[in-house]
């Protein structure tokens, strides 16, 4: 289910009505910062998982 042009227009109008033109850049900036922090945390967790997998593999090979 996708949005067509008319649906997007309604969404934009509602957002403008609720937040006003001056608040939208602030909201977008905050959303962008939140996404950057989320990606950093995700990448950090991925690195930790990969590091622990490599340690497990080394431990297994040294025990053989």
Describe the main β-sheet briefly. none
Report, as a whole number of angstroms, the end-to-end distance: 54 Å
Counting helices, strands and paired strands, the structural category is mainly alpha
Count of discrete alpha- or pi-helical segments spanning 4 or more residues: 1
Q: Please mark out the parts with pLDDT under 50 across 5 or more consecutive residues, or reply none.
A: none
Oligomer: single chain
- Helix content class: over 70%
What is the general shape? elongated
**Element string (H = helix, E = strand):** H
Q: Kindly report the average pLDDT value.
A: 81
| Count of individual beta strands | 0
CA gyration radius, whole angstroms = 22 Å
**Relative strand content:** under 5%
Short description:
With 64 residues, the chain is mainly α. It has one helix spanning 5-63.
């Amino acid at each position: 289910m996708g949005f067509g042009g008319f649906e997007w227009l309604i969404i934009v109008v509602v957002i403008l009505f609720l937040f006003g033109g001056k608040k939208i850049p602030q909201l977008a900036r905050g959303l962008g910062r939140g996404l950057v922090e989320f990606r950093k945390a995700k990448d950090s967790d991925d690195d930790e998982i990969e590091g622990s997998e490599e340690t497990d593999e080394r431990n297994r090979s040294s025990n053989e």
